[in-house]
Amino acid sequence: NAEYMGIRPSIAHMMKLALLVCLPLVFAVPPPPLTFLVEQSGGSGSAGGNYPLTAYLSSNFFLTGLSSVGIATCTPCAAGESVISPCTMLADTVCGKTVSLGVASCKLTIDNEIIKVYYNNQDITSKVTGGDLKNWNVQKQLTFTEVAGAALWFTGFNYEGNSCGTAGFSIICTSTVADSPYNGLKSDNTKWKAKGYTADPGVGFLTNNYDVSSWSTNPCISTSGYSLPGVDPQPPKLWASTGEAYAAFRFKP
Fold it and tell me: Whole-prediction pTM value?
């Protein structure tokens, strides 16, 4: 797992590595695989010095003068992290938090109407069961298999004005995996992003990687009198803080 990452003072002055290399050159007749013999040479100077490196290539080719090339050990991922990108000849390991995935089951409603539901770039509105999407007073259910990096989207419509007082989006979820980000997820305004619209916003932006950084304010906690049927205690009721009749809601772990 030694990588060319810059000279380190503790590197020995003499090192030989056998590397199988495919050159990015165009040949009239493709050559067979070539073997580099890389020799790091240096005198008996202090441990902190850089030493010239010469790479000899079979078939009468050679490289010389790569004095800034060095060797470093690949970084292992810490506990609770997994490898996002493995260590290569050009870059160290990229690690990320390990996310456990299972099957999520949610109870939800929107006052007044659920328009669309998307997950992992797919329209899953048809998977919402339990009743009329235009009837806020009926609990709806949604079950889906969790996917790493996927975003969960809802769009909704309020029939009245002043939506932070007359509308709302309520949801509470569980998962088959205890430490899944969906296990215990609810409609609180720290985990969900929301944006208001004066007309149906459509579905073109309901994707995993849509940039919501411009959605600068947290959703409002609605004071509407509706409730999510069959759930106790009730989760918060959310809407876009600007109060338009249409709103989009996104959760992405």
Answer: 0.65
